[in-house]
């Protein structure tokens, strides 16, 4: 009997795995930056630092919107996060 040849590698499956790993890492990085900017803004809320609060809020909204446009988070989730954050900032500034 002849020796069995090695099974063929499915190149499309290998490529798909490579792509999904890239996307997973990119998504992780973007979700992490969203969390970081939101936490930064909330920490400034606790410190009553009003001049830096506007900049931090603007940066957080930009990051969240960017994540939504790239499909990392759902657009309604992004909208909810932005709304919640803006509400907190507005109530703190009064």
Topology summary:
Layout lengths: L10 H37 L2 H20 L5 H19 L1
Helix pairs in contact: 1-2, 1-3, 2-3
Structural descriptors:
single chain; mainly alpha; Methane Monooxygenase Hydroxylase, Chain G, domain 1; 0% strand
Description:
The protein has a single domain, classed as Ribosomal protein S20 (Methane Monooxygenase Hydroxylase, Chain G, domain 1). The relative contact order is 0.12. It is an all-alpha fold and 94 residues long. The chain is 81% helix and 0% strand. It contains three helices and no strands. The model has no long low-confidence stretch (mean pLDDT 92).
Which blocks of ≥5 consecutive residues have pLDDT under 50?
none
- What is the overall silhouette? rod-shaped
CATH architecture identity: Up-down Bundle
Major sheet: size, sense and barrel closure?
none
CATH superfamily: Ribosomal protein S20
**Contiguous helical run count:** 3
List the domain count as a whole number: 1
CATH topology: Methane Monooxygenase Hydroxylase, Chain G, domain 1
Instruction: Estimate percent helicity.
Output: over 70%
End-to-end Cα distance: 86 Å
Structural class: mainly alpha
CATH class call: Mainly Alpha
- What integer is the average pLDDT? 92
Task: Quote the beta fraction.
Answer: under 5%
User: H/E order of the elements?
Assistant: HHH
């Amino acid at each position: 009997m002849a020796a069995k040849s090695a099974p063929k590698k499915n190149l499309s499956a290998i490529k798909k795995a490579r792509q999904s790993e890239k996307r997973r890492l990119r998504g992780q990085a973007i979700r992490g930056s969203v969390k970081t900017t939101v936490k930064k803004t909330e920490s400034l809320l606790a410190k009553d630092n009003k001049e830096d609060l506007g900049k931090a809020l603007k940066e957080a909204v930009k990051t969240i919107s960017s994540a939504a446009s790239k499909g990392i988070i759902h657009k309604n989730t992004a909208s909810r996060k932005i709304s919640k954050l803006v509400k907190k900032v507005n109530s703190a500034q009064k």
